[in-house]
Write a structure and sequence with these properties.
336 residues, alpha+beta, Aminopeptidase, 2 domains, 14-stranded mixed β-sheet, disordered N terminus
C-alpha cells in the first residue's frame, strides 16, 4: 500500500505525491519493474542529501500511474511554480527519472499533465547522460507533448569499459602510459610494505571515514575548503547509508600500515563510480593519489565489474587511465 500526501487523477492516469517511506518501498519492491539506473537518484542518496541540504525546500516526489500500474517517479523539489530534480551539482554528478523501461512516453505525458494542473511552468531536470531513455523521449517528442526542451552542453564524465583481466587493461593503454604505471608501481613497491584494503561493512565505516576526511583535507586547499562541516556530515552519513545498502567501497592504499591514499567509490549495477579521493602529502612523490585509482581499477577488474566511471571533471589522469569522455546535458523543460 503506497503512502501519499496528495493525488491528482487524470483520466486513466494518476499522479501521487509520495512520502519518503513509500519511495523506499518502491526501491525495495522488485515487482514494479522500475529501472533505478542512476545512483544519484536512489532513495538512499536522495534522503541523505535532503537531510543535509534540502530541509528548507518542499520535497515533491511524483509517481505516475497508468491503469493502476506504476510508470515512473520524478524526485522533485518544488520552488513556487518550478520543480527541479533533488540534489546539487557539486554533489550529484548527474540525474535521471526512475521509469519502467518502455513507459517513458506514458510517464512524461502523465507527469507533465499533472504539473500543468498544479501551475508548474518549468522543470529543471539537471545534468543528464546522453544514454538516458527519458532524455531521448524528450528530444524526440517534446513538441508533441506541448513543451519546449533546452539542452545545454555541460560538464563531461569519463568512463572506462573494463576488460576481463588486468593484463588486457594494461595492453589497452598507450605504450607511454603503460610504462609510466608500471614504473610507478615498482617505485611504490620499493618504498615499503604495500597493502590495499577495502572497507565495506557499516560498523567499520565511521572510523575509516575519519581517515578518509583527514586525507581529503590534507592534500589540497581547494578540497579543504570544499569539506566544510555540513558537507563533512553529508559525506559521513552517505558512506554509512551506502555501506548498509551494500554499495560503498572505501579503499585505502597503505605503506607500512600508514594510510597513504584513499578512494571513495560506489559499486552499483556492475559499475564502479569513483566519487572522491585524498592522499597523504608525505607520500606525494610516490604518486599515491594516482596509484590509488590504479589499484581501484585493478580491484574492479578482479571483481568482474563491467565499467569504471570517473564521474564529472576534466582532470587529465582520467584520460591517461583510459577514460573516454561522455558529454552531459543540462536539461530544462518549459510548458507552452
Amino acid at each position: 500500500m503506497r503512502s501519499t500526501m496528495n493525488t491528482t487523477s487524470l483520466s486513466s492516469a494518476t499522479v501521487t505525491i509520495e512520502s519518503w517511506d513509500s519511495l523506499f518501498r518502491y526501491w525495495h519492491d522488485k515487482d514494479n519493474q522500475l529501472d533505478w539506473n542512476c545512483i544519484f537518484t536512489l532513495p538512499v542518496w536522495l534522503r541523505t542529501w535532503w537531510d543535509s541540504f534540502g530541509r528548507e525546500h518542499e520535497p515533491y516526489i511524483c509517481a505516475a500511474w497508468k491503469n493502476q500500474q506504476l510508470a515512473g517517479i520524478a524526485p522533485f523539489l518544488r520552488e513556487g511554480n518550478t520543480v527541479r530534480i533533488m540534489g546539487s551539482p557539486d554533489l550529484s554528478d548527474y540525474a535521471d527519472f526512475i521509469v519502467v523501461p518502455g513507459q517513458e512516453s506514458h510517464f512524461l505525458r502523465i507527469l507533465f499533465s499533472h504539473l500543468r494542473h498544479e501551475g508548474i511552468v518549468s522543470v529543471h531536470a539537471g545534468l543528464m547522460r546522453p544514454d538516458s531513455s527519458v532524455l531521448s523521449e524528450l528530444k524526440n517528442n517534446a513538441q508533441d507533448m506541448g513543451c519546449k526542451i533546452s539542452m545545454e552542453l555541460a560538464e563531461r564524465t569519463y568512463e572506462l569499459l573494463l576488460p576481463r583481466t588486468w593484463e588486457e587493461y594494461l595492453r589497452a593503454l598507450s605504450g607511454k602510459e603503460r610504462h609510466e604505471i608500471q614504473r610507478k608501481l615498482r617505485r611504490l613497491e620499493s618504498a615499503g610494505r604495500i597493502t590495499y584494503r577495502v572497507v565495506e561493512e557499516k560498523e567499520d565505516v565511521r572510523s575509516a571515514m575519519d581517515t578518509f576526511i583527514s586525507l581529503f583535507r590534507s592534500n589540497a586547499t581547494e578540497k579543504a575548503g570544499f569539506m566544510y562541516p555540513v558537507k563533512e556530515s553529508f559525506f559521513r552519513a552517505l558512506a554509512e547509508a551506502l555501506a548498509e545498502a551494500r554499495i560503498l567501497r572505501l579503499s585505502f592504499l597503505d605503506i607500512d600500515n600508514t594510510p597513504a591514499s584513499a578512494t571513495l567509490c560506489f559499486d552499483y549495477r556492475s559499475t564502479v563510480n569513483i566519487y572522491n579521493n585524498g592522499y597523504n602529502e608525505r607520500y606525494k612523490s610516490l604518486s599515491v593519489g594516482l596509484l590509488s585509482k590504479v589499484f581501484s581499477i585493478r580491484h574492479s577488474i578482479e571483481l568482474g565489474r563491467k565499467k569504471y566511471d570517473f564521474l564529472k571533471g576534466d582532470e587529465p589522469y582520467k584520460v591517461r587511465l583510459g577514460g573516454v569522455p561522455v558529454q552531459l546535458y543540462d536539461c530544462r523543460i518549459e510548458f507552452a
